[in-house]
Structure formats: C-alpha cells, structure tokens
Amino acid sequence: MGRPAPYTGAMASPSSPAIAFDSKLWPSGTLWQPSATLSACIRATMVRNTLGSSLTDAQRVNHFPAAPLCSLSWWFTGSSLALGASSDGSDEGQPLDETAAKTPLPGRWVLSGPQTRPTATWCPGPVHAMMVLIPPDALHALTHLQPEALMDRMVDAATVLPPDWLPMLQAVQNAGDDAQALQLLEEFLEPRWQACRPAQPVAWQRYSDWVTHLAQRAAVSGPGRSLRQLERRIKRWSGLPLRELRVMGRSEDAFFATAALATQSSDKLDWAQIAADSGYSDQSHLIRTTRRITGLTPEALGKGIQHHESFWAYRLWM
Q1: Of the candidates 170, 181, 210, which has an alpha carbon nearest to the alpha carbon of residue 41?
Q2: 178-198 per-position pLDDT tens digit
Q3: How far is it, in rounded angstroms, from Cα 309 to Cα 297?
C-alpha cells in the first residue's frame, strides 16, 4: 500500500489566485486524502503546523463548523484548549474567540463525536497537530462505539477506544513526519476496515453523498421498512437524525457553490440565487442555517475565510 498523498483536488491555499485571500494569512494547513481502499473509512485528514510562526492570540483560534463527522486528533508539538466549553454553561452565548473561556482538552489524544453546533479551540503557542475525520458509521463498525454517545463531546481517546488501538496511537505520535504518521494509521486500519466494512461502502465526496448512501443502506438492512425504522438505523449509525444530516449536507453544498462562484467573479454574490440552487426555500433560510452551522452569516463567514487566519480549516475544505 502506497503512502497517502496531500489532497490537491479542490483545496485552495492562501497563495491561490482563484480567491483573493489576505496575503498575511499563514499557509499552515494541509488536507490529506486517504488511500482508495479507505475512502469510506477516512473522509480526510487535516494537519495544522504553525511552527516558526509568530501568530497573535486571535490568529491562534481554530474555527470549525457543525459537522456529522467524528475526529481523532494528535498534537505532535504544542497543545490546544477548547473555547466556550465550560461544564456549568456559564459561557453560553459567549463568542468563540480568544476572549472566551478556555478548557483543557480531555487527554493526549482526543476523540470527538458529531457536532451539532460550531466549535473552536485555541493554541497557547506554535502547534503541529493532526485531525483525522472519520464518518460515524465507520467508527461504529471499527470500534462498536455508539456515535450518539459521543454527540457534541470530546473525550480521551485512550480511555474509550479498544485496547489494541493504543499502540497505534503511540506509534503515530512518534512518527517522523506527517506522511509516515498517516501511513502507520492506514496500515493499522486497512485490515480492520476490510473485515467490517459494509458490502457496498460509499466513496463519498460530499456530506449529501454519504447521507443518500446511509438512507439506501438503511432501507435494505434488517427487517422492517417503515420510515421510523429506517430513521432509527440511520441515527444508530450516525448519531444524528436523518433530517439534521440533510441540513448539514445542504449547508456544505451551499458552501461549495459559494466558493465556486467566488472564483469566477469579483462581483457581489447573489445569495438568493445560491439559496435556490442549494435547495433552500429562500435567502433567509440559507442565512439561518449557515448561522446555526458556523455561527456566522454567509457574508461574515466569507470575510472570515478570506481575511482571518482562524478560519484556516474552512479554506482547506474549499
């Protein structure tokens, strides 16, 4: 099996001429694609490396949208703190920026479940970290963990993953570079995934592809074909109800449609047309959903992606 390669398809970087990114942005992220045989097991891998940088407190914030994926994270150098994550709820409604309450992450290696709201972390200093994005149904097949139990949570991976995963976690931690870390991870997952993967796994490109596949799989899995039984299967595999998964799929489709239009024209974007093309009832519906998924309006999100370092993960996803 060859080494995984950096994703070079739809990824844009701060130096790309397609979209006018602020020239002061730190080009510190890489999106890696998995090997073909693991494309239904690993959605993508994000690597963040700010070693050698002198970022401000605001630039060391990391913004992430609500998403149906689980993630497994390593910090090779440096550390991160969760923003706005106090257990007593005292920071409810507080902005997810460098002024928010900061909470230590639960362990050296962190497993996160599907997120129904936008999240953010903050790095006290330079960091080199890796986050592997895993569909919840794949994580369930590999570990028998229930995605619903991980909903909106970050947990110590060493305490919840099967014991035979722990040597792999340490081996990846000790890897010499990003490519070797990903190769070790894939060599570990390959035989396990081949033993438990669905008969027809989906090699998906968008959330909406995956949601359609889950619905089709639920329709032919086990006894019972009622809508309620299908939705129960989907929620057991993904942790989220089908309706919420479709909302996230539509939101990602709008995100890519906006990015595509931004590369074609410098004119002000037609949000009403983007809403119609992405399946929203109107522009207000698009704005409400985008705010719920990202915490920002579409226009504010676009400005953040173009001008603020803390939105590096969104730029990678483009």
Answers
A1: 210
A2: 999 999 999 999 999 999 988
A3: 18
Provide CB contacts within 8 A for 68, sequence distance 6+.
114, 135, 136, 207, 210, 238, 239, 240, 244, 245, 248
* Cα-to-chain-centroid distance, residue 153: 14
Q: What end-to-end distance do the CA atoms of the chain give, in Å? A: 28
Residue with tokens 């998906």, as numbered in its chain: 204
Task: Determine phi and psi for 32, rounding to 5 degrees.
Answer: -100, 140
CB 28 within 8 A of CB 48: yes
Quick one: residue 226, left, alpha or beta (phi over 0 = left, psi -120 to 50 = alpha)? Answer: beta
Whole-angstrom Cα distance, residue 120 to residue 63? 5
* Measured distance CA(228)–CA(53) in Å, rounded: 52
Domain boundaries, the chain: 5-196
The interaxial angle of helices 136-143 and 227-238, nearest 10 deg, is 70
Question: Is the distance from CB of 148 to CB of 114 less than 8 angstroms?
Answer: no
pLDDT tens digits, one per residue of 2-38: 445 543 333 333 333 356 677 677 667 899 999 999 9
Rounded Cα–Cα distance for residues 201 and 214 (Å): 10
Estimate the crossing angle of helix 207-219 against helix 242-264, to 10 degrees. 150
Q: Which of 65, 32, 119, 66 is nearest to 239 (CA)?
A: 66
